[in-house]
UniProtKB/TrEMBL annotation:
PANTHER family: CHOLINE MONOOXYGENASE, CHLOROPLASTIC
Gene3D superfamilies: Naphthalene 1,2-dioxygenase Alpha Subunit, Chain A, domain 1 (3.90.380.10), Rieske [2Fe-2S] iron-sulphur domain (2.102.10.10)
UniProt keyword list: 2Fe-2S, Iron, Iron-sulfur, Metal-binding, Oxidoreductase
Protein known as: (Fe-S)-binding protein
CDD domains, sorted: RHO_alpha_C_GbcA-like, Rieske_RO_Alpha_N
Length: 427
């Protein structure tokens, strides 16, 4: 009897890759990446050098730094960055490295300081990075030459981005000009942090991002699916029979939402430039299902005090994606920010922060558990899914598979990522 190998939809046979550069240049469009991209230390180092050290990275909300002297420390691969609000109330960013002999300066994830003092030899810096005190130096010592090394930092309607590059991508201003009109009405600069949850996913950071960029798996999120109309990437002709009633309900909600947005002067049309520029992004305003107000089990607001002076709570949601590591969801009553940072080839930090009006009172205007339930549950479900993907990809049996048409934003993310690696390797 003759046996035949089973048919597969794997890409055509190609010469074995011998290096990371080979794998980058041999990547097959429309398919997931080869296993080393997700499991090897070599690719983690390449990702830090080519992506996280050269792009604009979302790291915090301004609400995490409400007063002068408030700081947050962020770990990006081997880098540690201090974000601090200075005495002029501007957000500054510095490398978390003493200019004397390199000791780590601040060790806590957040806190407040008058000055930044090195615990080793007590070199002291102002919150503007200026060296204020260095004991027992030679007469020709010039303190102006030893301020903290700065990191490029930009704020966008209450969101803080940093770039570790000597010359950051030049398109940030253009992206900010296009995105800020969507974000500004939600008044995030005057919001406060209601809750922040750090979740470590047992998966490569790219699996975390790929998972976020599609809803092919969203049947695994019943709580979230109650809030959304589950119609992603379907055209009107492609909506399956089981979703026709949902689609009709969406059309009515969408017409109502557009009328509301136009009456309030809120931009809502989709802008999608995920893989055509260094600072890739996607922004869109759209209706939510149920009561249409917020990310809750009944769709009603979780916070009685709305983020801004909106005349109605029924604004659906504003979604923003930024490459390579963040996504944001804003409703009338609160906003949620998500930051993704690699910890190891198979471990990723997902930091989720819920923002509410600065005057909203916990226990009076909102219940933190109600506020966070839908997205916290969704994050925990996603952690299980991406951990399964990581374990499968780690098997010698893994072969890259084809993306579904509903996973177009995954392809956009991967194409953006591969472009950054090519630029780095060729540059």
């Amino acid at each position: 009897m003759t046996t035949r190998a089973p048919a597969t939809s794997a890409p055509a046979t190609r010469a074995p890759a011998t290096s990371a550069a080979d794998l980058v240049h041999q990547r097959v469009v429309g398919h997931s990446l080869d296993a080393p991209f997700y499991v090897s230390e070599e690719f983690l180092a390449l990702d830090i050098a080519a992506v996280f050290a050269r792009s604009w990275i979302f790291v915090a909300a301004e609400a995490e730094l409400p007063e002068p002297g408030d700081y947050v420390t962020v770990t990006i691969g081997p880098y540690s960055v201090i974000l601090v609000r200075d005495d002029e109330e501007d957000v500054r960013a510095f490398h978390n490295v003493c200019r004397h002999r390199g000791a780590r300066l601040l060790h806590e994830p957040h806190g407040s300081v008058g000055n930044i003092v090195c615990g080793y030899h007590h070199w002291t810096y102002g919150v503007d990075g200026t060296l204020l005190h260095a004991e027992s130096q030679s007469p020709d010592f010039d303190p102006t030459c030893f301020g903290l090394r700065t990191v490029h930092v930009r704020t966008l309607a209450g969101l803080v981005f940093v770039s570790l590059a000597a010359r950051p991508p030049a398109d940030f201003d253009e992206v900010a000009d296009r995105v800020e009109p969507y974000l500004a009405p939600h008044n995030l600069r005057r919001a406060k942090v209601a809750r922040q949850i750090d979740l470590v996913e047992e998966a490569n950071w790219k699996l975390t991002m790929e998972n976020n960029r599609e809803c092919y798996h969203c049947a695994g999120h019943p709580e979230l699916q109650r809030c959304y109309f589950p119609l992603y990437n379907f055209t009107a002709d492609e909506v399956p029979p089981a979703l026709r009633a949902t689609y009709e309900r969406f059309l009515a909600a969408d017409a109502d939402a557009r009328a509301t947005y136009e009456s309030l002067g809120l931009p809502y049309e989709t802008i999608e430039e995920l893989d055509t520029r260094p600072t890739g992004f996607r922004v869109q305003r759209e209706p939510l299902d149920l009561a249409g107000e917020s990310f809750t089990t009944d769709g009603r607001v979780a916070v009685r005090r709305l983020l801004a002076d909106f005349p109605t709570a029924r604004l659906g949601h504003l979604g923003l994606h930024t490459q390579p590591n963040a996504w944001f969801h804003l409703a009338s009553d609160h906003a949620v920010t998500f930051a993704v940072l690699p910890l190891a080839p198979d471990r990723t930090l997902v930091r989720t922060t819920w923002l509410v009006h600065a005057d909203a009172v916990e226990g009076v205007d909102y219940d933190p558990d109600t506020l966070t339930r839908v997205w916290n549950t969704t994050n925990e479900q996603d952690a299980v899914l991406v951990a399964r993907a990581q374990r499968g990809i780690s098997s010698p049996a893994y072969l890259p598979g084809p993306y579904s048409p509903t996973e177009s934003q995954v392809e956009d993310f991967v194409n953006w990522y591969i472009t950054r690696l090519k630029e780095h390797l060729e540059g």
